[in-house]
Amino acid sequence: MQDPSVTIEDAPIFDPVAFRLTDKEAKLTATARDLGQRLFAGRAERYDREAIFPTENYRDMAEAGLLGICIPEDQGGAGADFRAYAITAAEIGRYCGATALTWNMHVCSTLWSGPLSDDLEMSQADREGHLERRAMHYRRIVEGGKIYAQPFSEGGAAAAGVVPFSTNAKKVDGGWVINGKKIFASLSGSADYYGVLCGEIKPNEKPSRKDTMYIAVPASAEGVEVVGDWDPLGMRGTVSRTLVFNDVFVDDDEALMPRGVYYQAATRWPHMFMTLSPTYMGLAQAAYDFTVNYLRGEWPGLPPVKRRMYPTKQIAVAQMRVMLEQTKALWFQAISEACPDPSEDQVLRAYAAQFTVMENANELAQLAIRTCGGQSMLKTLPLERLYRDSRCGSLMLPWTAEICLDRIGRQGLYKPGETDE
Ligand SMILES: Cc1cc2nc3c(=O)[nH]c(=O)nc-3n(C[C@H](O)[C@H](O)[C@H](O)COP(=O)(O)OP(=O)(O)OC[C@H]3O[C@@H](n4cnc5c(N)ncnc54)[C@H](O)[C@@H]3O)c2cc1C
Q1: pLDDT digits (tens, 9 = 90+) for 123-157
Q2: From residue 394, how far is each of 274, 390, 402, 404 by CA, in Å?
Q3: Atom of ligand 1 nearest to the CA of 401
Q4: In this structure, are residues 338 and 271 in contact, taking their beta carbons and an 8 Å threshold?
Q5: Closest ligand 1 atom number to CA of residue 152
C-alpha cells in the first residue's frame, strides 16, 4: 500500500496547453487525476488481491459527477464527448485499471445512447421515443447514482461482430423477454442495470446482426442470475462473472437504443469500440511514472535509494519515454478524429492506435520491471499489478490486437470487393 502521507504531484498525461484541450477536458481530467492519486491508488491493491469490485471508488466518482460524464449538461451530467471521456478515463486507469475498465462499461451506456446516437439517423418517432427513454436512464444515474454494465461477450463469434448475438430478445406486450448467457460480464453483482446486446427474434426470419437490440436489464429482475467465479491473471477488480438470463421480462422503456440503431452505430461510428483503450493508456503512463520515481529513489514509503546513475537505466527510461510518446501521439490523434462515417484511413488509424496502446502498455510494464529490478515486482508495489492488468488489453473484443492487425493488413492490400480470383 502506498504511504498516503507522501505524494508526488503527478503531471497530466495530456497537458491541457500542449494538447490544446478544451476547458471542460482540462477540468474533467484534473478531477479524475485528483481522485485517482488521492484515493484510488491506495485502494487498488486490495481490489486486486481480493478480486472485489471498487465500490468505494464508485461512490467517490458519483459524488464528483463522473458517473454522468457523458450525460448532457441540461440533464445534470458533465456533457463530455468521446475525446473528453477518453482522456478522463486514461487518468483513472493510471491509478486503478479495474475502476477505469468497469467505468468504461458504465459510461458506454450513456455515450452510445447520448452523443453517439445524436449523430445517427432515426425516424422522428424513434428519436422522440429515444430522447424520452434515455432521459429516464440518465435520471437514474444522476439522481440515484445507479451503475450500468455492458455485457456483450458470449464466448462465440458474436462479440467480434461476425455473427448475431445468441442472447435473444422477443417482443411481447409492453416489453421484451430476454434469454441467454453473457461471459466476462464486468460489474456483475455490483451493477444496477446490465446493458445487454441481444438479437431480436423475428418470426420466420433468420437472426441478423441488423436486429441487434441494446436493452438495460435491471439486476433485480426475475430470471437474472450471476454464476461462476472470477479469479483471473489481471483486472481482478472488474469481477467479470457470467450472467444468465432466463425468460427475463423488461419494460419497453429499458431499451437504450431504438431498433436498428446499434447496428447503424457499429457500422457508421466505429471508434465506439475504442473505448476500452483509455484504461490502458493510463496503465502505460503509470508504468513510466513508476520507473522514474523508483529510479530517483522517490517512491512513497520506500527507502530513498537512487538507481538512476547507471547508463543502462537512463537508456531504458529513454526507450520507455519514446514508446510512451509514440503511444500518446497516435492515440490522441485517433480519439480526436472519432466521428460518424470516418474515412478508411481514419478507421485504419483507429485500429493502429488501439493495437499500439494495448501492446505498448504491457511492453512498458515489462521494461519497467526489468529496469527497476527484483524489489520492484513485490506485491507491496503497484508495478506487478500494472504488468498483469496491462496484459489483458489486447484480448478485449471486438478490437483485439489480432483482429486489429488482421484488418489493417487486409484492408491495406485489398480494396473493397477485390479478390485474387
Ligand atoms: C478484464 C476483462 C474484462 C472484460 N469485461 C467485459 C465486459 O464487461 N463485457 C463484455 O462483453 N466483455 C468483456 N470482456 C470480454 C472480452 O471482450 C472477450 O470477449 C473475452 O476476453 C473472451 O474472449 P476470448 O478471448 O475467449 O474470445 P475468442 O472468441 O475465443 O477469441 C480468441 C482470440 O481469437 C481472435 N479472434 C476471435 N474472433 C476473431 C475473428 N473473427 N477474426 C480474427 N481473430 C479473431 C481474437 O484475437 C481473440 O482474442 C472482458 C475481458 C477481460 C479480459
Answers
A1: 999 999 999 999 999 999 999 999 999 999 999 88
A2: 12, 8, 8, 10
A3: 47
A4: yes
A5: 11
The pLDDT-based confidence of 278 (bands split at 50, 70, 90) is very high
CB-based contact 69:107 (threshold 8 Å): yes
What are the backbone angles phi and psi of residue 175, rounded to the nearest 5°? 175, -145
DSSP 255: B
Please give the number of the atom of ligand 1 that sits closest to the Cα of 102: 8
pLDDT in tens, 29-51: 999 999 999 999 999 999 999 99
Task: Give all domains of the chain, ordered by start, each with its CATH number.
Answer: 23-147 (1.10.540.10), 168-261 (2.40.110.10), 269-413 (1.20.140.10)
Q: How far is the CA of 159 from the centre of ligand 1 (A)?
A: 7
* Cα→Cα distances 335→49, 51, 209, 220, 417, Å: 33, 31, 26, 36, 28
Residue nearest atom 12 of ligand 1, based on CA coordinates = 153
- For ligand 1, whether the C-beta of 105 sits within 6 Å is yes
Q: Distances from the Cα of 196 to the Cαs of 1, 18, 231, 399, 415, in angstroms?
A: 36, 39, 23, 19, 34
CA of 95 to the centre of ligand 1 (A): 24
Output DSSP code: residue 15.
-
Model confidence at 403: pLDDT above 80: yes
C-beta of 186 in contact with ligand 1 (< 6 A):
yes
Residues 215-228 pLDDT 10s: 999 999 999 999 99
| Residue count of the chain | 421
**Ligand 1 pocket: which of 162, 167, 226, 397 to mutate (most atoms <8 Å of CB)?**
397
CA distance 283 to 364: 9
**For residue range 300-318, what is the model confidence (pLDDT) as tens digits?**
889 999 999 999 999 999 9
Q: Say how far apart CA 405 and CA 348 lie, in whole Å.
A: 10
Q: Is there a contact between 266 and 272 (Cβ–Cβ < 8 Å)? A: yes
Atom of ligand 1 nearest to the CA of 101: 3
Distance 125 CA to ligand 1 centre (A): 36
Tell me, what amino acid is at 285? Q
